[in-house]
Amino acid sequence: MRVTLHLDEQDLVRFRGALARAEERAACAEACDIIEGAKHALDHLPIASAPGYVRARIADVQRLIIMLEDEDWLLPPAFQSAVLRTLAYFGDPEDLVPDEIGVIGLLDDAILLDLLMRDLRGMLRAYEAFAAYREKRAVEQEGASIEARLRYSQELAACRKRLLARLRPPARRALA
User: Fold this and answer.
1) What is d(CA 66, CA 29) in angstroms, rounded to the nearest whole number?
2) Among residues 161, 135, 140, which one has the least CA distance to residue 151?
3) What is the DSSP track for 65-98?
């Protein structure tokens, strides 16, 4: 079954306010603290009993964390801050609807994640292409010479550069 939500300006004002509060709290935090907050939420929120729509958005959070923590990927600052603000909202225990409320507690998180992910999907697709390229090429590196491993590192860096060059910095248009 498909359910369509229509968010009017007043609804978006509420989401903007909640996002702004999360961003204010996150502005004082280090990136690693924001990531840890999102991981804590993933570990402790009632995700297993959440509706499928919510669980699908939660999977996006997991993918964002993996991408941010990948030392080979090295996101530019504008992209990194867009991901961190998304994670800051998700990890914020004081969002619009308390997360502990059964069935609907994570719905506000899922809706806002859906809106924010519109700007991040291209970045995730680029990262997934990079990870697939790296995985395919890594198999070839077993027992390779130092020169071959150096070439592999250079090719990986070139692949990352090509993929990132195609991306435009997130515009925050989802809540505009």
Assistant:
1) 19
2) 140
3) HHHHH-TTT---HHHHHHHHHHHHHHH-TTSSS-
The pair of three-digit structure tokens given for residue 158, joined into one six-digit string: 């070139």
CA distance 69 to 35: 9
> Structure pTM?
0.84
**Inter-CA distances, 119 with 19, 78, 105, Å:** 15, 12, 24
Give CA–CA dist 47/26, Å, rounded. 23
The most confident of the ranges 3-12, 23-32, 40-49, 121-130 is 121-130
Give the pair of three-digit tokens for residue 127. Answer: 């990262």
Terminal CA-to-CA distance of the chain, rounded, Å?
29
User: What pLDDT digit, counting tens, does each position of 140-152 carry?
Assistant: 777 778 888 889 9
How confident is the model at residue 158, as a pLDDT? 96
Sign for the pseudo-dihedral over CA of 64, 68, 71, 75: positive
Taking only the tens place, the pLDDT of each residue in 21-36 is 878 877 888 999 999 9
